[in-house]
Design a protein that fits this description.
Blueprint: E1 2-9, E2 12-17, E3 21-26, H1 30-35, E4 42-46, H2 47-51, H3 57-64, E5 69-72, H4 78-86, E6 91-94, E7 99-100, E8 103-104, H5 106-116, E9 121-128, E10 131-134, E11 139-140, H6 145-152, E12 158-163, H7 175-184, E13 188-192, H8 198-206, E14 209-213, H9 215-218
Parallel strand pairs: 1-4, 1-14, 4-5, 5-6, 6-9, 9-12, 12-13, 13-14
Antiparallel strand pairs: 1-2, 2-3, 7-8, 9-10, 10-11
Length: about 230
C-alpha cells in the first residue's frame, strides 16, 4: 500500500532533502488534501513541532478532519499523544521520545501504550549509517533498527522505518535494510526513505510492507494512478 506523506512547516506543505534542505514548498495545502482524499492512510508530520519551533496544530486538526491521518512530530508525552488523537488522528507516530540514555526507553513506551492503546501507537525507528538516529536524525545511537524494533514490539501496533541515508534523494531505497526490519517483527511495517518507483512499492507490498512516499509524488516523478487502493 502507498501512504502519501504531508509534511508541514510554517503552515506550508514542504519536502526536505535529508530532513534539512528545503526542496519543495506549497503554501496552499488544499490541492494535496484533495489529491490524497481517496487514500485509506495518509501520513501527516508537523516538522515545526518535531523541531520544537512552534507547531501547526490547527492545520493538523483541519487536515485530520478530512483525511485518515497518522500524525507525528513533537509527540514526547502521553498528554501530547492524547491531544493529537483527540484532534482527529487515527494513530500517533512517536520517535525520539522512545529512546533515552542511548537505548530504547521501554518504560515510556509501556506507559504510552497503556495510556492510548498499542494499536494507536506507531513506533518510528529511523536508521542512519546502520544505526538508530533521533533528534532530527542528528543523534546516532549505538543500536540498530532491528535492535530497537525487537525491544519496542510489545508496545506498538506498527513500525515506521525510515532509511535516512536515502531520504529525499529519489535514488531508490535500501530494500534489504527494510526487509531486515520486516523479518524482526510480527507487527505491521511501513517503510520510508527514497522510495521512488511503482516497482519498489509493489515489491514492498509483496513483502507485506507499506510504503510512505513524499518527494517522488510532489515532484511528479511518481504517478498516483491506480495506487489509492
Amino acid at each position: 500500500m502507498l501512504i502519501p506523506s504531508i509534511d508541514l512547516q510554517g503552515g506550508h506543505v514542504v519536502q526536505l532533502v535529508q530532513g534539512e534542505r528545503l526542496a519543495i514548498e506549497a503554501p496552499d495545502p488544499e490541492p494535496w488534501i484533495v489529491k490524497f482524499a481517496s487514500f485509506p492512510r495518509v501520513q501527516l508530520i508537523d516538522l515545526d513541532a518535531a523541531k520544537g519551533h512552534g507547531d501547526n496544530a490547527t492545520l493538523v486538526e483541519a487536515i485530520c478532519a478530512r483525511l485518515p491521518c497518522r500524525v507525528g512530530g513533537g509527540i514526547r508525552s502521553v498528554e501530547r499523544a492524547r491531544a493529537v488523537l483527540d484532534g482527529g488522528a487515527h494513530a500517533v507516530i512517536v520517535s525520539s521520545a522512545l529512546f533515552r540514555d542511548r537505548s530504547v526507553d521501554t518504560e515510556f513506551a509501556r506507559t504510552l501504550s497503556e495510556a492510548v492503546g498499542p494499536d494507536r501507537v506507531i513506533a518510528a525507528v529511523d536508521s542512519r549509517g546502520g544505526h538508530v538516529a533521533i533528534h532530527g536524525w542528528k543523534t546516532v545511537l549505538p543500536i540498530t533498527a532491528v535492535d530497537a524494533v525487537r525491544a519496542l514490539e510489545p508496545y506498538c501496533g506498527e513500525f515506521l522505518y525510515t532509511h535516512v541515508d536515502k531520504e529525499g534523494l529519489m535514488q531508490g531505497t535500501d530494500m534489504e535494510a527494510i526487509l531486515d526490519v520486516r523479518r524482526a517483527t510480527a507487527r505491521r511495517v511501513t517503510a520510508a526513505g527514497g522510495i521512488t518507483t511503482r516497482e519498489e512499492i509493489e515489491r514492498l507490498h509483496a513483502e507485506a510492507v507499506d510504503a510512505v512516499v513524499g518527494m517522488a509524488i510532489y515532484t511528479g516523478q511518481l504517478s498516483l494512478d491506480g495506487l489509492s487502493a
